[in-house]
Each structure stands twice: as structure tokens, then as C-alpha cells.
Amino acid sequence: MDKVYNPRAIEEKWQRYWEQNKVFKVSEDPNRKKYYLLEMFPYPSGRIHMGHVRNYTIGDVVARFMMMRGYNVLHPMGWDAFGMPAENAALQSKTHPHDWTYQNIDTMRQQLKRMGFSYDWDRELATCDLIYYKWEQWLFLKMFERDLVYRRKSLVNWCVSCQTVLANEQVESGLCWRCKNEVAQKELAQWFFRITRYADELLDSLETLKGWPERVTTMQRNWIGKSYGTEIDFAIENSAEKITVFTTRPDTLYGATFMSLAPENPLAIKLAQGTAQQESVRTFIERILKQDKTVRSSEDLEKEGVFTGACCINPVSGFKMPVYVANFVLMEYGTGAVMAVPTHDQRDFEFTKKYGLELTVVIQPEDILLDPKTMDSAYVDDGIMVNSQQFNGMKNTAAMEKITEHLVQQGLGRKAVNFRLKDWGISRQRYWGNPIPIIYCDACGIVPVPENNLPVVLPKDVMITGMGQSPLAGCPEFVNTSCPVCGKPAKRETDTMDTFVESSWYFARYACPEFDQGPLDADPVRYWMPVDQYIGGIEHAVLHLLYARFFTKVLRDLGLVAVDEPFVNLLTQGMVCKETQRCETHGWLYPEDVDNGLCRQCGKPAEVGRTEKMSKSTRNVVDPEQLIQKYGADTARLFCLFASPPEKDLEWSDQGVDGAYRFLARVWRLVSEFREEIMNAGCLPEAEIADATVRDIRRKTHQTIKKVTADIGERFHFNTAISAVMELVNLLYQFNPREINNQHAWSVFREAVEAVILLLSPMVPHACEELWQELGSSETLINRGWPTFDPLMAEADEVVIVIQVNGKLRGQITVNAKAPEEEVKKQAFACDKVQPWVAGKEIKKVITVPGKLINIVVK
Ligand SMILES: [Zn+2]
Ligand SMILES: [Zn+2]
Ligand SMILES: [Zn+2]
How far apart are CA 605 and CA 399, in angstroms? Predict the structure, then answer.
């Protein structure tokens, strides 16, 4: 055995061994308990980064741990392979998106294999594989049959100079990312998934997700945004049209003095038509539509608007309300129109102050008298109704119901529920995606592609220019087809699906990645689903995780899965961060561009900036490949796990990496130093262990097994688990079994060293497999199983008892863990530090918490 730890020599050997022996290949086995562990699959962008390394290492530890505990563990890997970067790369490097994607997959697969992850590679899938997107098209058709898919016009970001639709991510502060011209809004017919049909269920079943971080379920709850309220109709003066609003505050209706429309609301332009306001309304709308919606919905947005020239009538007070278009009203919420009550809504209040509109107080607090002339902010709390006709004098909370009843009786309104959640627009005017299986026929209209004509193959021979329509539209062989109903010439849909569609069901497909009779094969899917543990970034808290939940419910209703929810437990890991460095001449610097704090190019000092998420744009990145070359995969894994708990951000530290490597070298030396003796050490003899040091080692071993088992199994606290093993290793270094040199010493030493290897093996599997083999075993650690501990053995010999007098800490004593209570009390009273507080006092009572605390209550 090598005296020195040499990861290069062992890591690739074990990776080959696992692969050749298909150690991680699984199949359905009804006699074994299954465990499905899944990390969010990567986008094949080119190379793996430290974020991947961390995410997949966390998952790998859990997978290996569960394998060792005897579970039948499904741990698959695949590629979220459609998407825009492939098209951008095609423009830049003239590589076809297909080739670019599959080349990247090959590179990244190799890199992941080099990390030693325990994937069942036989289940690998890429969402751009024909067989995968074919069955997704089939799902689209099933959803179409069930009216879960529909087409309507909706606004998209449009770059006039590039003549193309832009995704939200391609709009950078209102400008086209490519040509830097202003982005406009354009109406286009698009396909939508009717996710709102499942809004109530998506909300209600959040309650069942006990294994999800509360932060994530809260974000989903807010995103779905269910609210109960009243819909109220407002007649428009001199018009047959009306404006309907949704409000959760019908009690303030008498105080509504004007109306605000979202710039997207088609009524806005319509009302201004032919009035003197027409031009200013048009320019205002154009300007606002370019702004980011998150900015528009922020509280400190400067409120602004423009009068449309029209008025509507308050249905209860008869007040003539001018209709405005306002920047802070969004079409996505309610009806895209808001009755403005400036006295009781802060945004309306600010707007009114700017434009000098009327204010009427309708809710009076009990302590002060509100006067519109002196109010400096809206009053939004409860109070007594005033200026509200027959509702005056009521509590406003009671008036909500009463005013709604009144509106219902008069036919002016109705009770309503509103969701913030909107239907999911899935049309993308891009090439590298799944073609939407629809045909347009002049005679028959919208015709779904018949099932037996699937798949609609994404053609390879297209021109990608980044300009104009979707590249598919410029491909006549694709576009021109015949109508499946009447046989006449017809045209194909040229949009592709949002790539979030692929990631909405891939987890179920891993149960049967090669199945070609349908998207999902019932038996394996029933066996493996749901995913027991899902691991990924918090940035997916809403969209991906909500869409996946929606799809699971649709798949269930199609009879394809038997579960309501896809992911039982969710872990959202933190980011990998590193300090940034900058040279005043050369800008952001890569770590390797800095030598001794100086810019390598010009020798100027590199300014050290903030620590933030590793990112290519700020160059504060570490390439995992370099790390592996220098230290090996096990060190990279150990560092990621030890540096912080998984849900927290990890701060990069070169010293930390070094420390991880040194620890592994230390474990290695421990084994190589005593290898022969360990191998020759027999089983532990029955007789009581005479030597206290040997007893201590044994106890520490069992305590460590207990702690690591709980830290990994219950909490995913790999960092504290590793610390515990480090403590045991330190103890073993202090202990020299050659000095005692009896059978007890050697067998206890052997037990301890074996525990170290087994406990570390899910985290640093290569080194552990090698050490295990060096100690004479021919089986892999996965089959060896997880070590167990003897609870009695793990109990401490001595415990520290804290002593309080009248609840105040006064001292502490160390006692034998098995000492009787009376004996412990006696020692507590005898304690030097406690004596002065109890001597000569009347003892009222003594409260004991066994093994922890004694509280003496004196008069
Ligand atoms: Zn442009
Ligand atoms: Zn037809
Ligand atoms: Zn420089």
C-alpha cells in the first residue's frame, strides 16, 4: 500500500470499477424498499461549474447513504437540453444547436463521471432526444383534448430592428440584448396551458408538502395568490361599455373617486379614441409597457398616469369618476382595472396628490377624525363607516358583506375569488425546442397532429439568424404540410414549447426512459414515484416546482401516475460564493490572473471586492476540473460538504480545500501505518475491556456512528458529520495500539478505523473504497452496508451537570453518568461555587433534569 495519499492513482480506477460492474444500476424490486433521489438536471451549457459540483455532491451523499442502508435507490441523471443558449452559440460559433448540445452533454457527462457520482447512467435522457419530445407532444395532444391547452392573443416583447420576439430574459432594462434598441410590446397568438384550472388544488395540496422548506411553499402560495372579494361593475358615461373591477375592500366603495386602468387594458386606448386625450394616452401606454413589471409593482415606484378623457359612474354614490391609465396597475391582477379610493389606499393616495383628484373619507378610526385636507397618507385600518349612506355607523368589516349583498341585489356586482396565478404561456418563437404539434388549415382551422403522425420532428436543416420569425417559419419543408382532416395544403405551427415543459415531467420518465408505447410505463412509474428527495436551487421555488406539480396532477388525471405530488421532500441548496477581484486597467480578474495580490498582466494591485455568487461575468469562479486535477474529486466533494450546511451559501476558501485534502491524507496515513495489524486484529473478545483508553476509543467510535447517522439521515448536516469523524480520527492519532498491544486494543482500533472509512464513504467514496480494499475486503462499500452502533456503548461515561440556584447559573460538576440522583444532588450541594448560595438557607425544593441540570430553590 502507498504510504502517501495519491487520489490520481485511485479515483479513475474506482470510477471504472463502478461503471463496468454497473454498481449503481437499479431495477424495480417489490421486495425492497425504494428510495428515489433526484437532483435538478443541468442545462448542458458546456462545462460543469462549482454550483453543479456542490448540488450533485449533496445528492450523491444521500444516495450512497441510503444504498448502504439497504434501500433500492434510484439516482438518475439527464439533460435539460432544449433552450436558447444553444441558438446563441449557433450564431456565435456557427455550430448547429443539435451538435453544440450533444457535444456539451458528452463533455459534462465525462466531468460528472470524474466526480464519482453514483448515477444509474443507463437511465440517462436528454429532453432534446426524439423519443422524449415525441411523448411530450403526445401529452400536449391529450391536454388539448381536455381543453387544458388553448390559443389566444397576448403581448410579447418585440424588437423592431431585429424583427423578433424576445424572451423576458433577453430584455435588459427595456432594451434588446442584441441590438440595444428599445423593446416594444406586440400582440401575437400564443398557446397556453390552463394551469388555473388546478389553482385551488395546487394551493390546497401545499399543505401536504411537509418535507418542503416553508419558504418555498409560502412563495408558491403567494404566487398562486388566492383572494376573496367582490366584483363590481361601473357604467361608463355615454357608452354601453362597463368597467368591472375586483376588490377585496368593497367597504370603501363610497370613497372611490376615480378609476385606474392598466396600460395593457384594451379599454384604455378605446376610451381615449376620438378625445383630445388620444395622443397622450397612446404615448403614455407605449412608454410604460417598456418598463419592467417587477419595477412597476414595487411600492416605491413613482406613481403616474394619464386621463383617458372618459368617466365612469360610482354605482352606489353616483359620483362621476374620471378614468385614468396608471403605471402601477397590472393586467395580471384582477381585471386590469382598479377602483381608486385615495383615502384608504396608499398607491391611490400618492396618485391623487400628484394629479389633484377628489378624496372622500368613508372609514373613520375611533380615536382621530380624518380630514382629507390634512391627511398625509391613506388610512388603511379598520374603523366605522361614514359618508356611505345606509351603511354609516357600521364597522367597516361588517359593511364588506353588507355592501356586497346590496350590489348583488341591485345586479351591480357579485362575490368573486381571484387568483394571481395566470395561465402558462408556452409558445416560444425559437428553433431549439419541442415543436408544438398543431396544423392550421384554411378550411378546418386549428387541427391537432394525429397521434400516429407523431413525432413532429424538429428539422435539422434551418437557418438561424437571430432575426425575423422563428427559424422554423423559414423552413418550407417543415411548414408546408397537408391537413389531417381534409387533406388540403395546410401549415404547421412554427413556435416551439417553453423548455419548462420538458422539466415538468422528466422525473417520472426516469422510471422508464426507453419506453416507447407512451410517455410513462405504468409499473415502473408506480414503483418509483414519487421522488423521495429532490435537491436544487431556491431560484426554482416558483416556476419549475409549480409547473412540475401542475404536470403531475395532469398526468394523474390522464391515468399515467398514481401520485398527487411529485416531490415528497425538497432541499434547496445555497449558492457557491467567492470574493471578486478587479484590476483598474484589466477589470474583473480570474483567480488565476492574480499572483500575490497583483494583476498578472500589469502588476497593479488587485482590489478585492465583495463575495458573491460565482459567476463568469465577475470572473470569481473556480473551474472544478482544475480542482480535480490538483486535489482529486474526493477533496472537491469533501470541501463542498464541510464548508457549510447544504441550505446555506458556501464561501470558497483555498485554505478550506487544502484542509480537506490534508484530512484525507491523514486518514490515509492512519490506515497505511497500521494496515498489517488491523488486518490481523480479530473480533472483539467478550471479556470486559480493562484499559480505560481502549474503552474511550470504543465509546467514541459508537458515539461517532450514532452522530453521523443522525446528521446525514435526519438533517443532511454533512459538515457536523465530518467534524465528528475528524474528532474520532484525532483521538486515534493520540492512541497508539502498539503500546498496549493486546487483542482488545487491536480489535477496538480496527473497529474504529473501519467506522471512519464507512462513515466517510458516501462523501469521499474513492479513497474509502481503496482503503477498504487495502484492508482486505473484496466487496464494494455500497454492499457492505452502513455501520450500526450499540446505544449502550454510545452512552457517555461521565456527564456535566449544570447547577442553578433560584434559576441562576452558579456552578457545574462532572459526575458518573450512571450515578443515582441522590448522589448527584449531594455532589451539587458540595460544589465550591454553589456552597455560598445555599449555606444556611432554607431549601424549598430541588428540581433535577437527569444528565443535565439541577436547580436548587432557596428562600
Ligand atoms: Zn434587437
Ligand atoms: Zn382541413
Ligand atoms: Zn491589470
Answer: 69
Compute the C-alpha angle 208/213/217, nearest 5°: 55
User: Which residues 6+ apart lie within 8 Å of 728 measured at CB?
Assistant: 700, 701, 704, 752, 755, 756
- Could you tell me the distance, in angstroms and rounded to a whole number, from the CA of residue 483 to the centre of ligand 2? 5
C-alpha cell at 681: 486484529
Q: How many angstroms is it from 478 CA to the middle of ligand 1?
A: 26
Q: Is 619 helix (H, G, I), strand (E, B) or coil?
A: coil
**Is the distance from CB of 823 to CB of 795 less than 8 angstroms?**
no
- How far, in Å, from the CA of 593 to the mean position of ligand 3? 9
CA of 17 to the centre of ligand 2 (A): 58
User: Could you tell me if 321 and 258 are in contact, meaning their C-beta atoms sit under 8 angstroms apart?
Assistant: yes
| CB distance 306 to 213 below 8 Å | no
Residues written for the chain: 859
What residues have CB less than 8 Å from 214, skipping those under 6 apart?
A: none
Alpha helices in 530-686 (DSSP H): 543-557, 624-631, 633-643, 654-680
Q: Which three cell numbers stand for residue 217?
A: 411553499
Q: Strands 384-385, 363-364: parallel, antiparallel or unpaired by DSSP?
A: antiparallel
| 8 Å CB contact between 467 and 163 | yes
Span 40-65, pLDDT tens digits: 999 999 999 999 999 999 999 999 99
pLDDT tens figures, 184-229: 878 889 999 999 999 999 999 999 999 999 999 999 999 999 999 9
Structural Rg of the chain based on CA atoms: 34
Contact 301, 194 (CB under 8 A): no
How much distance in Å is there from the Cα of 612 to the middle of ligand 3? 21
DSSP element (H, E) containing 217: helix 214-224
Q: Which ligand is nearest to the CA of 441?
A: 2
Which protein residues have a CB closer than 5 Å to ligand 1 (ion)? 159, 161-162, 176, 178-179
Q: Confidence class of residue 683 from pLDDT cuts 50, 70 and 90?
A: confident
By three-state DSSP, how is residue 231 classified? strand
Q: Cell numbers at residue 219, please?
A: 412563495
Q: pTM above 0.70?
A: yes
**Residue 793: predicted pLDDT:** 81
Q: Which of 650, 856, 642, 617 lies closest to 764, judged by CA? A: 642
Task: Give the H or E element holding residue 784.
Answer: helix 781-784
Where are the alpha helices (H) located in 21-71, listed in sequence order? 50-68
Closest CA to 801 of 848, 838, 836: 848
> Closest-lying ligand to the alpha carbon of 439?
2
CB atoms under 10 Å from CB of 272, counted, come to: 24
Cα(87) to ligand 1 centroid in Å equals 15
Three-state DSSP class for 137? helix
What region, left, alpha or beta, does residue 531 occupy, with left being phi > 0 and alpha being psi -120 to 50 degrees? Answer: beta
Do residues 164 and 467 make contact, with C-beta atoms less than 8 angstroms apart?
A: yes
CA dihedral 137, 139, 145, 149 (to 10 degrees): -80
SS3 618: coil
The pLDDT-based confidence of 292 (bands split at 50, 70, 90) is confident
By C-alpha distance, which of 721, 694, 707 is closest to 791?
Answer: 707
Look at residues 299, 185, 300, 315 and name the one whose alpha carbon lies nearest to residue 259: 315
Give residue 667 CA to ligand 2 midpoint distance, Å. 73
Give the residue from 782, 847, 98, 816 showing the smallest Cα distance to 462: 98
Exposed, middle or buried: residue 305 (CB in 10 Å: 0-12, 13-18, 19+)?
buried
Q: Going by C-beta distance under 8 Å and a sequence separation of 6 or more, which residues neighbour residue 514?
A: 131
Amino acid at 707: K
For residue 428, name the pLDDT band (cuts at 50, 70, 90): confident
For residue 261, the 8-state DSSP code is E
Q: Percent of the chain scored above 70 by pLDDT?
A: 100
